[in-house]
Structure formats: structure tokens, C-alpha cells
Design brief:
Blueprint (H helix, E strand, L loop, with lengths): L1 E9 L3 H9 L1 H7 L3 E3 L7 E5 L5 E10 L3 E8 L8 E9 L2 E11 L4 H23 L12
Length: 143
């Protein structure tokens, strides 16, 4: 199995970071085009990226200001069953984000592209929280 990891600081409280990675309004600012769901363990999220990418994920972990994890239950075949998660550590005025996308079947071209895309999306997350920057969905991989 292959995994993707990105650790980085954000100048925001762990509560604000948690909301941005677990609440649909926050997720739509940096990752999805449109999402819906409730950040409670066992609930399902709709993650919509366009007509060909209408995905679903199940909440596997939801500890406010500490840990949020989704398991992909309807997605591209390479993403099926993978887990996307955020472990948060409050450190004064910053939050250390320990991001993971775990459980890939193997290191293939899609895994490599996704690793790059995650770094770009996570950069948008950081800029959203630190500066209130809004980036249109179609531009997120170009900023």
C-alpha cells in the first residue's frame, strides 16, 4: 500500500482548522466545488467536483479541534477505500496539521498526481485560513 503525507503549520486555531476541513462551507473553500455532510462519525459526505466526479465518503473519525477522517466509499477506483485525514495539534498561535491520504493500492501515476494536487489544495486551505483568500475552484491548482 502507498500513502501520502503532508505536515505544515497554519496560523489559525485548531477549532478554525477543524471547521475548514470538516464543515461543507469550509471544504468548499479549498477542495470541493460543492459538498454536503455532517462531521459526525458514521455520517456520509457528498464531495462534488463536477458531473464526472460525484464522490461519497464516510466519516470514520471526528474529534473537534483534533482529528477528522473520511473513508472514500464512491470515487475513482484508485481512491476507493482510501482514508483522507487531518490530525491537528494546537501550538500557541498556530496549528500543526498532519494530513494523510492512506491506503492507496500501490504507487501509480494517479497516486503521484494526487500527491501533488494535495499539496496545492492544502496551500489553498492555509491561505484561506490565514488571509481569508478565496480561490475559485477552477484556479486552485494554479495558485
Amino acid at each position: 500500500m502507498a500513502d501520502i503525507f503532508h505536515d505544515f503549520p497554519i496560523k489559525a486555531s485548531a477549532e478554525r482548522v477543524f471547521d475548514a476541513v470538516s464543515m461543507p462551507a469550509g471544504i468548499d473553500e479549498w477542495w470541493t466545488k460543492k459538498s454536503s455532510g455532517d462531521p459526525r462519525k458514521g455520517e456520509e459526505y457528498e464531495l462534488w467536483f463536477g458531473p464526472k466526479y460525484d464522490w461519497r465518503a464516510k466519516v470514520m473519525e471526528s474529534i473537534p479541534a483534533a482529528h477528522f477522517e473520511l473513508k472514500m466509499v464512491r470515487a475513482d477506483p484508485d481512491w476507493m477505500g482510501t482514508r483522507v485525514g487531518f490530525r491537528l495539534e494546537a501550538r500557541g498561535e498556530i496549528t500543526l496539521v498532519r494530513f494523510y491520504h492512506a491506503g492507496w493500492p500501490f504507487e501509480n501515476e494517479h497516486w503521484r498526481i494526487s500527491s501533488y494536487c494535495w499539496s496545492m489544495y492544502l496551500r489553498v486551505l492555509r491561505r484561506y485560513l490565514e488571509y481569508g483568500e478565496h480561490v475559485e475552484y477552477e484556479q486552485r491548482l494554479q495558485v
